[in-house]
Please model this.
Amino acid sequence: MKIAKIETYLLSDQLEESFFFSQWAYSERRICIVKVSTECGIIGWGEGYGPADVLEAGIKLLQPMLIGKNPLEQEAIWFDLYRKTLDYARRGILVASISAIDLALWDIKGKTFGQPVSVLLGGRHRKQILPYATGLYFSQGENLASRLAQEAVSYIEQGFRAIKMKVGFTPEQDLINVREVRKAIGPDTKLMVDANHAYSLREATELCRKIEPYDIGWFEEPISPEFHQQYQQLRTKTSIPIAGGECEYLRYGHHELLKNNSVDILQIDICSAGGLTEAKRIAALASTYGVEIIPHTWGTGIAFHAALHFIANLEPVPGRLFPPDFYIEYDRTSNGIRDKLTSPCICMKDGYIDVPSRPGLGFEVDEDVLAYYSLPAQNGKKVS
Model:
């Protein structure tokens, strides 16, 4: 078996209404996915996390290193790509490009052996995973706190048991928003906050003190990802668990968070940190520190399926007869690509999502949807 072709697709969904968070606004969802084809006709799909146009350029740069290789030897391929880009790409977009390719190779491997990727990773510790709804972004208009509260209630009505909301506006406005959301959803729904590294240590400490009474499940990226020691200091100043890691790359970046005691929860992004191959190594590293992993997940059904398989394989720390639920991030912001590109559809039942049991990553890509959202042209009617 040999890799015969690497194809990239830039996908774009223009949003009817923009939304924003502490760093920038979204008026478009733009995503890069990759299709890896073998000489025997088996196809794998992958996705990278980062600026889509730059990701595409990164994948094209790596393409000559892949043609003719055996896709089943994904660890050897991973190391070859890493070694040949090490001098200029120890972090950032090329690691995300390697991640996209790595997911596609795992998809091929599963399809080749007729097994789900979670089994090939070493087996499933769980068959169901608890999703939390990521939403409650900022938008223009009056009564923001009231609108966020209404949105939160809509997620509970859909069956979610946990919700993550954005903070990072100002500590004063964040307090108003958190208070109104908690009041609307009641005490039994888990509530997390995410600042996208908007605050200084002083501001993050202030906000923690303001929102501690509202039973916050974790505070995600309170401070710039550059300041590992400040993360550690913040942990000593609050009872709220501190989460981070989506801006780190490879086992080396995540090790900095771990050895500095920076986080209670490590948030690997599989589509940027090095793919499933490297995420498996990061998980082993985190287990030696006794740190919980809840991956950051953002993009299409490709990324979501990869996260399901990865989480299914995570060892419970500590192990016990009745282990706690493991969480997966489920983005609920507007994204037609996420909702329509892959099938079967992602379905939540009784608050949980089943780990896919089909071979590979467990989905098919709808070629009509792929063609519709692909740049530069988006022609025809929307796919329903």
The chain has a mean pLDDT of 95. The chain has two domains: 3-116+367-373, 118-361. The chain has 14 helices and 15 strands.
